[in-house]
Amino acid sequence: MAPMAEQLKRIARAVGLRRARIASARMYVERHALATGSRGRRRKHGRILCYHSIGQSWMGVNDVTPAQFRRHIELAFQAGFQFVPAAHVARYGGRANELAITFDDALKSVRTHGAPILRDYGIPWTVFVISGWAEQRDAFTAENALGWRELHDLAADGAGAALGSHSVTHPDFGQLEPSRMRDELEGSRDMFEKRLGFRPTEFAVPFGQSRNWPAAARTAAAEAGYEVVYAQAEDTRPPGTVARTFVTRVDHDRTFTALLRGAYDRWEEWY
Ligand SMILES: [Zn+2]
């Protein structure tokens, strides 16, 4: 890499880490406040968790350590939950004690740290792939994102992983022209077909917040052939989407247990 590019990368990393520390502090305060305030609500259907990376700390608040991830699973079992595929909850609602695990961005650590833990417990899981990253055309994606071959192996019989789309380049659909939306939605299905031989019918909204999924995106996704669109908070998600609960690095025993009780069902990330 040229010296200038190397320098830019170092700066970006430093800025990212500073932002991550501020975000982490604020999230910690908010999550604990909500955990204190929540009594839990009666629930009639299953819950889908959304993780990103397992031990890739540059992901900031969206990274959990392998030990933390294992602890979350143990806490869920102790609380009486069973794990089911996300598609089951998305399509049928599931029961109140059913929980599903999904990962956005298809990062390498999902395979190296997440998959072995999930295999230990026999838990099914879903990965949402940024198809342009899976092509691994640059040093960053080659280093950090899963390639098509690895994704193929994860989805192969016995590994327990289902694959869905997370767009081609991870744009904010709240800022996109409809023609670009089509490129991102249909383009990703095309790449899946070319590389893995199937067209995914499930999509996770990049950034996942309600402002990232306008009505035009909902129409474009249906026209592109997606049947299920995963977003975020239970009470604030856009029409036509399936709720997920984002899990972050600030979630240890107290806040994760509160999360399972629904303490964050009105909560969205703010950046
Ligand atoms: Zn994402």
Can you describe this structure in just a few lines?
The protein has ten helices and ten strands.
Which percent band covers the strand fraction?
Answer: 5-15%
- Indicate the CATH class: Alpha Beta
Summing up helix and strand content along with how strands pair, one would put the structural category as alpha/beta
Q: Give average pLDDT, whole number.
A: 88
Instruction: Give the assembly state of these chains.
Output: single chain
Query: For this structure, what is the CATH homologous superfamily?
Result: Glycoside hydrolase/deacetylase
Number of strands: 10
Sheet with the most strands?
Answer: 6 strands, parallel
Distance between the termini: 31 Å
Which ions, cofactors or small ligands are bound in this entry? zinc ion
> What is the N-to-C succession of helices and strands?
HEEEHEHEHEHHHEHEHEEH
Which spans have pLDDT < 50 for at least 5 consecutive residues?
1-5
Q: Please tell me what the overall shape is.
A: globular
How large is the radius of gyration? 18 Å
| Tally of discrete structural domains | 1
- Give the helix tally: 10
Characterization of this structure:
The model is unreliable at 1-5 (pLDDT under 50). The chain has 271 residues and is an alpha/beta fold. It has one domain: TIM Barrel (Alpha-Beta Barrel), CATH 3.20.20.370. Helix 9 (215-224) links the parallel strand 8 and strand 9 (228-230). Helix 8 runs parallel beside helix 9. The strands form three sheets. Strands 1, 4, 5, 6, 7 and 10 form a six-stranded parallel sheet that branches. A two-stranded parallel ribbon has the order 2-3. The radius of gyration is 18 Å and the shape is globular. The protein is 46% helix and 13% strand. Zinc ion (ZN) is lined by residues 104-105, 166, 170, 206.
